[in-house]
Amino acid sequence: MKIVILTGAGISAASGLGTFRDQGGLWTKYDLAEVATPEGFVRDPAKVHDFYNARRKNASEAAPNAAHFALARLQAEFSDDVIIVTQNVDDLHERAGTHVIHMHGSLARARCADCHAGWDAPLEMSPSDICPACGEASTRPDIVWFGEMPEHMDKIAQHLETADLFVAIGTSGQVYPAAGFVAEATGAGAQTLEMNLEPSDVSGHFQDHIIGPSSRTVPDWVASMIKST
Questions:
Q1: C-alpha to C-alpha distance for 221 and 2, rounded to whole angstroms
Q2: Which of 2, 71, 165, 202 has the highest local Cβ count within 10 Å?
Q3: Which residue from 193, 194, 188, 195 is spatially nearest to 163, judged by alpha carbons?
Q4: CATH number of 18-61+109-143, picked from 3.30.1600.10, 3.40.50.1820, 3.30.43.10, 3.30.360.10
Q5: Residue 166's beta-bridge partner residues?
Q6: Quick one: pLDDT at residue 70?
Q7: What are phi and psi of 45, to 5 degrees?
Q8: How confident is the model at residue 165 (pLDDT cuts 50, 70, 90)?
Q9: Hey, which bits of 54-200 come out as E strands?
Q10: Which of 68, 104, 159, 205 is labelled catalytic?
Q11: Strand 3-7 to strand 139-143: parallel, antiparallel, or no bridges (unpaired)?
């Protein structure tokens, strides 16, 4: 059985990393048009770097939770038959031992807005940082901003076309194209499962649902999957 799993901000909530909709969270203190768009970066790169420096610091101080470790266990058990795609830009999956496809980029990476070279990001970035490839002061976080195309879409589409089971964990179903993955998987004949604190905006497209915190539901689900083999 090939399992394709999509994870969203909800899986990192138990690690102390807030979601878009958390009241009083980091996202609520900024206008997303100013810090999460290419136009915002052009207008005020210092503000954008400050925002992502804060997110990078928060992520570096967080630790993987039980859900991250459970998915690492599942992937170790079934190897190439478990594909994990994440909307998250933190590295908690990797630190738990999981190989993931980052469709929205990664806080741990930087890239050049001019030549598009990429490299490991320092903990703090600034508008004066020089691209190691072209020498221009045009470095930006390697994050997919609103209005930009997510990464690895061809690879993700291929996995969805061949999935036997598609699982979405901790996603709101508000951000496309990820919110459309369940329709793609269903069209390819896959079974579908949503695991979330509450029904998402696309909950009606899923065949099965498990409601509750991912730090509890994901380990239980993984244990049942392994036991059933």
A1: 16
A2: 71
A3: 188
A4: 3.30.1600.10
A5: 4, 192
A6: 98
A7: -60, -30
A8: very high
A9: 82-86, 101-102, 105-112, 118-120, 139-143, 165-169, 191-196
A10: 104
A11: unpaired
Count CA atoms closer than 13 A to 214's CA, side-chain side: 25
Active-site residue, 99 included:
no
Task: At 36, list the tokens.
Answer: 């999460």
How far is it, in rounded angstroms, from Cα 112 to Cα 36?
A: 16
The pLDDT confidence band at residue 25, using thresholds 50, 70 and 90, is low
pLDDT value for 16: 87
Cα–Cα distance, 26 to 200 (Å, whole number) = 22
Fold of 1-16+64-104+150-229: Rossmann fold (3.40.50)
